[in-house]
Amino acid sequence: MKGEISFSILLAFILFVGINIANNYSYSEEVEKQQLIIKDKIKSYDSYGLEYKSDYVNTFTPPKAFDNQLITELVKNSGWSQRGDSGFIVNLDAPLDKQICSAEIIPLTPKNSPFLLTLGNKSVEGKIDSTSVTVNFLPNCVKDVSQIKFDVKSPVDVRNPIQEIKLYTQKTIPPIDPPTCPPDSYWDDKLKQCVKIDNHINGTTITNSTIALKVSNSTITIVTDATTKVIDKTTPIGTPLNENEEEEEEEQDKDKEKDKSK
After folding, report:
1. Which structural domain, as residue segments, surrounds residue 163?
2. Residue scoring higher pLDDT (11 or 67)
3. Is residue 120 located within the same domain as residue 77?
4. What is residue 233's three-state secondary structure?
5. Does residue 192 share a domain with residue 157?
6. Is there a single domain that holds both residue 94 and residue 113?
7. Which residue, 116, 143, 173, sits at the end of a domain?
8. Of 62, 73, 106, 227, which is most buried, counting CB atoms within 10 Å of its CB?
9. Which 8-state DSSP code applies to residue 65?
10. How many CA atoms lie within 13 A of 193 on its CB side?
């Protein structure tokens, strides 16, 4: 009948608006990583290994593993390197004011060497088996880091040059709510303005469809006029209509046919 909206069309309308809003906004928290540069915070360091040539040892020192500079054609003497079972300790001039949640070890040539990275009192072991090795200290990030220790095991004739060890903290970004629009409108992020709902869904037709809708922590506004009826005729799947419901549907179909013939 004219002025009547079936529940399925109403549900389709809610789904259509919901999808548009969901595409424009993320209501979940986001995590942002931030690199901490510590090259100017290093107070002292020490290293060990089987390489004793002074020019080599004095060139590839532990602080160069934290200078945020990778080895390039122009910069060849960057990073830390030693031979065989080796490692270093770096002491900072003061505990870091931000916690460390992860690290990235960037070797020059991965050689599958086992390593142990220690920040404060927390250690994580792994293997240098790729050009970028991620070390996670989650779920409990390390606070007040004042010392960094790195140990690597390898054969006596193998060097393990490390271009860089990057340290990361992270912060949680709260979800962003969309701007508030009038009850008969919704925010369109592409247009950057409130759009009237009536104009948006005029002429929308959905047939032979299965609609699944999950709505939480939301406000859904439906605007109707005085002549509009909202009819909920939802029947559980697999439940047959009784005789009265079948007769009612037949009457409505007949009314629709009469309206079309006018």
Report:
1. 31-173
2. 67
3. yes
4. coil
5. no
6. yes
7. 173
8. 62
9. G
10. 3
Q: What's the rounded mean pLDDT across residues 93-115?
A: 95
Q: Do residues 16 and 67 share a domain?
A: no
**Contacts of 113 by beta carbon, 8 Å cutoff, 6+ apart:** 127, 128, 152, 153, 154, 158, 160
The DSSP symbol for 62 reads G
Under 8 Å between Cβ of 50 and 156: yes
- The last residue of a domain, from among 140, 173, 206: 173
58: which DSSP letter? H
Q: How many domains does the chain have?
A: 2
Q: What is the pTM of this model?
A: 0.58
- How does the average pLDDT of the chain come out, rounded? 79
Are residues 193 and 249 located together in one domain of the fold? yes
SS (H, E, C) 193-237: EEEEHHHHHCCCCCCCCCCCCCCCCCCCCCCCCCCCEEECCCCCC
Instruction: Encode pLDDT of 155-167 as tens digits.
Output: 999 999 999 999 9
Amino acid at 117: L
Whether the pLDDT of residue 195 is over 60: the answer is yes
* 124-147 average pLDDT score: 94
Question: What is the mean predicted confidence (pLDDT) over 110-124?
Answer: 95
